[in-house]
Amino acid sequence: MVSAYLLNTVVVLLTAAVMGLLCFYLLVAGLFTVRLHQRSAAVAVLLAAAAAVCRTAGLALPASALSGAAGTGQLIAFAAVTITAAICCASCEPP
User: Fold this and answer.
1) DSSP element (H, E) containing 42
2) Apex CA 28: angle with CA 22 and CA 31, to 5°?
3) Could you tell me how far CA 84 lies from the centroid of its own chain?
4) Could you list the pLDDT tens digit for every one of the 95 residues in the chain?
């Protein structure tokens, strides 16, 4: 019998993978929208460096550092506004 912990772990990993793909597709659509897809190598290096910095900070900080400093409600609102703006940018016409 599969334990609830193992099942929850699988669900979290699948959700993280799907969200990662969603972010990737929104980024690619945004690059095409603003006509920066031809310079995507520079954007990829910048994002990789930002991810490395965030990962290092994530290892050094406790899990609740961001929500403790800003508040959970404000973080959720910020994430919702950011995702909505990304979707709007990805779905608008090129300039």
Assistant:
1) helix 40-60
2) 140
3) 13
4) 567 777 777 777 777 777 777 777 777 777 777 777 777 777 778 878 887 887 777 677 676 776 677 777 887 888 888 888 878 877 777 66
Token couple for 56: 């290092």
Q: Write the DSSP symbol of residue 95.
A: -
Q: Do residues 65 and 57 lie in contact, with contact meaning Cβ atoms separated by under 8 Å? A: no
* DSSP 8-state assignment for residue 37: G
56 Cα distance to chain centroid:
16
3-state secondary structure of 61: coil
Tokens 């290892």 -> residue: 59
Phi, psi of 34, rounded to the nearest 5 degrees: -95, 15
Beta carbons within 10 angstroms of residue 85's beta carbon: 11
User: For the chain, what's the residue count?
Assistant: 95
Cβ atoms of 80 and 16 closer than 8 Å: no
Distance of alpha carbon 48 from alpha carbon 85, whole angstroms: 22
